[in-house]
């Protein structure tokens, strides 16, 4: 027998199932039961995947009476032992312990026990909730989705751009922004500063020089929304592409979403099976279907038509020109089409100044991607390139032209058609996991009244 114990993790052990190897594994006890035959069975999880490895501890171990007997859910241990083929039908491999060292015991008030705790209760203990199967699975999926997003853009020669978090540019209306100042309020930047709501405007400058760029960073909205889809601090993915028009932009959004979802289905199988079983029944099938079919493309005007002709009673009545509410968006993608829908050509009056004005003078080339269960997951547009038109639109929106000379410059020097969009990263994690509340898909959620 070798003396050396090989460090490994549960994921690797279960995948490779190496038999007759001395291994060292560290993790947290999920359950422990003792058999009459003088053994304890410990289910150990180390976060590397959703599954546990079974540890068999013999009564003859030195510290059996004093320590091992008292192990319970949440205790942290280090196990040295031999990997053996398992007789049980739930696993192919288990560990016969030679030595179990207690790294951390738990106090009586440890809240994560075997009984199911509601996600709501878990939110009151954000530092301990990753010890649960659900939050663990969500965080592994979230991590994978991040990597998949970077891979997607990297493979297509996009430049990854870090736009500022502290900005002076007020993109969508000052009411929604957090101010940035020092404690003694001495106006550090010699002008008002805010936390960014979007990196788009800054990204446009780089798209018009590097061609294809994307940002992936934190954004902040000081809006008083208490829904299951809004956070005050969330992460946004924003590609911006020179020479793309609105059709290219829609195609990019569709290819992007499908590619990311496929990647999760391929690489996060254990966690996806868990979501399918425990969080949203049938979600794997739903996502597979979405990857295989074309997204519906629909103009705002046609959407209003469908909505007003439907017999559905909406809380907010509709007419051409009004903003669609979540109930309308969800009716379209969940009930009417039962598929992702890309809405385009919105009335200019309900969209920001930077969207390209159509020849009808009334609509702009904006697009929202709506998905079942969530509603809007992506918002984007082809950008206005004509100096006279964008200047007029900015004046109408009450924007200080002086502060935006640089943005107008982009239209004056070497301008070109360009387009981009913003994906709310947490909404994507929600969509792929089936989690119903956005607060449960980010490690430390920030919402109004809650830090
Ligand atoms: P909504 O109408 O749902 O509030 P929005 O139109 O204000 O969203 P955009 O400004 O278009 O959102 O932002 C782009 C994307 O960022 C949205 O499609 C959405 O996925 C995401 N997003 C926007 N606001 C939030 C928020 N408060 N929390 C989490 N994600 C958000
Ligand atoms: Mn939007």
Descriptors:
BirA Bifunctional Protein, domain 2; single chain; five-stranded mixed β-barrel; binds manganese (II) ion; binds adenosine-5'-triphosphate; eight-stranded mixed sheet; 451 residues; alpha+beta; OB fold (Dihydrolipoamide Acetyltransferase, E2P); 30% helix
Structure description:
The mean pLDDT is 94. The chain has helices at residues 10-16, 119-122, 133-155, 200-210, 246-267, 269-279, 283-292, 300-309, 326-336, 387-396, 405-412, 425-433; strands at 6-7, 22-34, 39-45, 53-58, 76-85, 93-104, 159-160, 166-167, 194-195, 212-220, 233-242, 296-299, 341-347, 363-371, 375-382, 418-424. The strands form three sheets. It has an eight-stranded mixed β-sheet, sandwiched between helices. A hairpin with a 7-residue loop joins strand 5 (76-85) and strand 6 (93-104). The chain is of the alpha+beta class and 451 residues long. It is elongated. The chain is built from twelve helices and 16 strands. The protein folds into two domains: 6-113, OB fold (Dihydrolipoamide Acetyltransferase, E2P) (Beta Barrel), CATH 2.40.50.140; 129-440, Bira Bifunctional Protein, Domain 2 (BirA Bifunctional Protein, domain 2), CATH 3.30.930.10. Helix content is 30%, strand content 24%. The structure holds adenosine-5'-triphosphate and manganese (II) ion. Manganese (II) ion binds at residues 368, 376, 379. Adenosine-5'-triphosphate (ATP) binds next to strand 11, strand 15, strand 16 and helix 12.
């Amino acid at each position: 027998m070798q003396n050396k114990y090989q460090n490994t993790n549960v994921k690797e052990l279960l995948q490779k199932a190496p038999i007759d190897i001395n291994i060292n594994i560290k993790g947290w006890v999920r359950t422990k039961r003792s058999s009459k035959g003088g053994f304890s069975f410990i289910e150990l999880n180390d976060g590397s995947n959703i599954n546990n490895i079974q540890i068999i501890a013999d009564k003859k171990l030195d510290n059996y009476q004093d320590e091992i007997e008292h192990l319970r859910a949440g205790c942290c241990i280090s196990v040295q032992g031999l990997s053996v083929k398992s007789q049980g039908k739930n696993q192919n491999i288990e560990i016969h312990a030679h030595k179990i060292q207690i790294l951390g015991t738990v106090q009586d008030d440890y809240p994560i026990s075997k009984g199911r705790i509601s996600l709501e209760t878990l939110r009151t203990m954000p530092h301990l909730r990753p010890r649960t199967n659900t939050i663990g699975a969500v965080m592994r999926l979230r991590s994978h989705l991040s990597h998949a997003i970077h891979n997607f853009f990297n493979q297509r020669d996009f430049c990854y751009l870090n736009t500022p978090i502290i900005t002076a540019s007020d993109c969508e209306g000052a009411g929604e922004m957090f101010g940035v100042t020092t404690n003694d309020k001495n106006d550090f930047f010699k002008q008002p500063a805010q936390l960014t709501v979007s990196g788009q405007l800054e990204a446009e400058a780089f798209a018009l020089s590097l061609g294809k760029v994307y940002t992936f960073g934190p954004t902040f909205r000081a809006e008083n929304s208490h829904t299951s889809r809004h956070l005050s601090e969330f992460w946004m993915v924003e590609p911006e592409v020179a020479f793309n028009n609105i059709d290219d932009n829609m195609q990019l959004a569709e290819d992007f979403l499908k590619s990311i979802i496929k990647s999760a289905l391929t690489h996060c199988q254990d966690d996806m099976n868990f979501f399918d079983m425990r969080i949203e029944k049938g979600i794997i099938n739903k996502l597979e279907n979405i990857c295989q079919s074309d997204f519906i493309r629909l103009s705002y005007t046609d959407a209003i038509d469908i909505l007003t002709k439907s017999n559905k009673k909406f809380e907010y009545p509709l007419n051409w020109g009004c903003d669609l509410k979540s109930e309308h968006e969800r009716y379209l993608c969940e009930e009417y089409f039962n598929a992702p829908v890309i809405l385009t050509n919105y009335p200019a009056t309900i969209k920001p100044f930077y969207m390209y004005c159509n020849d009808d003078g009334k609509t702009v080339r904006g697009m929202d991607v709506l998905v079942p269960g969530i509603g809007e997951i992506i918002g984007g547009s082809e950008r206005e390139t004509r100096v006279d038109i964008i200047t007029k639109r900015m004046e109408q929106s009450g924007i200080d032209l002086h502060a935006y000379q640089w943005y107008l410059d982009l239209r004056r020097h070497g301008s070109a058609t360009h387009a981009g969009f913003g994906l709310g990263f947490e909404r994507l994690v929600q969509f792929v996991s089936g989690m119903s509340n956005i607060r449960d898909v980010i490690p430390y959620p920030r919402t109004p009244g809650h830090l």
